[in-house]
Amino acid sequence: MIRQPSLRRLLLIWLLPAMLALVAAGGLMAYGIALRSATWAYDRALLDTSLALSGQIHIVSGHPVLNLPSQAQEILLTDRYDNVFYEVIGPQGESVAGHRGIPRPPQQLPEDGRIYYDGWFHDREVRVAALFVLREGIPLLILAAETQTKRDNLVREILTSMLLPELLLVAATLGLGWLGIRHGLKPVEDLREQLSQRSHHDLSAVSSDRVPREIGPLVEELNHLLSRLDGSLSAQRNFVSDAAHQLRTPLAALQAQAELALRRLNGPAPAQTGELRAELERILAATRRLTHLAHQLLALARAEPGGEQAMKPLDLVEVVHQCAETWHPRALERNIDLGFDLAPAPLLGHPRLLEELLSNLIDNAIHYTPAGGSVTVRTFARDGAAVLQVDDTGPGIAPEQREKVFERFHRINGEQNPEGCGLGLAIVREIAKQHGADVWLDEAPVLGGARLEVSFPPPPGR
């Protein structure tokens, strides 16, 4: 099993490099400050040594002489941590006194006659202070050098004193950050606990009263998902309930007719062929009604939310062409003129569901149109939206009934139609909802019967 990363650990991992970078930057700044401070302080001390030596130089017979008693030299050169060296250089670059071989200045002396630089003396790194002086017109260069042990110790002490509090601050920040993250993630843990205690039947919205603003969108999307899931499950329950209710009656009738035919066949006076044929025809009619009902129920299930929803660009004219061959024979059988007035009507939709929608509209129109009447299917585009209209010469639908006819199993004035099941227009409305379309019922202005119109939203990019 793959171990899931901890959000707390990820947040700290993202935070730690930034803090370490800040500490490193602070350390570099502290090191630079400490180094400059130590260098300035000890350079001044070296310069004082050079100045003290310059005060002991005298010119004797035109030659510089360093008059430095041994006791003064011992005091001058004594240091607890470092070794101190000096050298007096004459006008010709000759060594007048002191330790020979101290590195000379790497560049020309500035106007104030003082310069500080690093070098090597007897395989040891030293810091040198060079001082240019004139004694009775004779130019002299006085060099004072010392090893850098004190400097390194001072830099280390300053750096430690500055970095240690920063490291402690980093540790304290990480600890407080861990606690803060833990406290900040508590609403997520509370949400998990709330969901874990729910029944699998409970699809109500999750409370967002005490949810932080950053988690609010997550809870909102979760509630949307629960709402859609609840709608899908409700549709499934409704479908099962409707199917059980509607199938019970035709199944009972089919069973009763089959039992009656069997009794007549096996009774003391066997049924004649004509009587048996009549019974079998009733059984066949009941079977056809049952098949139609099953087809309508399955069509309704596909039209419910959560059913088939794959959309693609198409034209309503294509959908009409697919359905025309199926419904022309039915219209001719009932002596009804099924006509078409087709203009391009592009949309984004599911071909199978749209064919089901149109089939139910035509079926409904043919059913209510008397023999010799007319049904017209029309497609066109209006303001970029595809429109489908089905007009008939039937009796029409009263205004007070026009909303109710879209309800499941609703029959106008309680009619008992042996061929219908009251699901056609309910299927139409569900499929229209899947496509974001509007459906309404009106009076056909030319044919005088009912007009059912479905208006689809414009396809993207129009």
Automatic annotation (TrEMBL):
EC class (word): transferase
Main location: membrane
Residue span(s) of domain HAMP: 182-234
One Gene Ontology CC term in the entry: plasma membrane
Highest taxon above the source species: Bacteria
Protein name: histidine kinase
Cellular compartment(s): Membrane
Biological classification of the source: Bacteria, Pseudomonadati, Pseudomonadota, Betaproteobacteria, Rhodocyclales
Keyword Repeat tagged: no
The reaction(s) this protein catalyses: ATP + protein L-histidine = ADP + protein N-phospho-L-histidine
Species the sequence originates in: Azospira oryzae (strain ATCC BAA-33 / DSM 13638 / PS) (Dechlorosoma suillum)
Pfam families per the UniProt record, alphabetical: 2CSK_N, HATPase_c, HisKA
Listed PROSITE patterns: HAMP (PS50885), HIS_KIN (PS50109)
Keyword annotations of the record: Kinase, Membrane, Phosphoprotein, Transferase, Transmembrane, Transmembrane helix, Two-component regulatory system
EC number in record: 2.7.13.3
GO molecular function list: phosphorelay sensor kinase activity
PANTHER family linked: SENSOR HISTIDINE KINASE YKOH, SENSOR PROTEIN QSEC
Residues in Histidine kinase domain copies: 242-460
